[in-house]
Amino acid sequence: MSREFLLPDLGEGLSEAEIVAWLVAPGDTVAVDQPVVELESAKSVVQLPCPFDGVVSRLGGEVGTVLHEGAVLLALEPAGDAAGDAAGTERPDEASAPEETSGAVLVGYGTVSTAASARPADAPARFGRRGSARPLGAGLTAPRPRLDPGRRSPVVSPIVRRLARQNGFDASRLEGTGPDHLVLRRDVEAYLAQGVAPVPEPAVVDAPSARSSAGDERLPLDRMRRAAAAQFTRSRREIPEATVWMDVDASRLVAARRELSEATGERFGLTALIARFAVAGLARHPILNSSFDAEREEIVQHRAVHLGLATQGPRGLVVPVIADAGSLSLRGLRDAIAAVPGELEAGSARLRGGTFTLNNYGALGVDGSAAIINHPEAAMLGVGRFLERPWVVDGAIVPRTVTELTLSFDHRVCDGAEAAAFLTFVAGCIERPMTLLAEL
Question: What is the pTM of this model?
Answer without folding.
Answer: 0.53
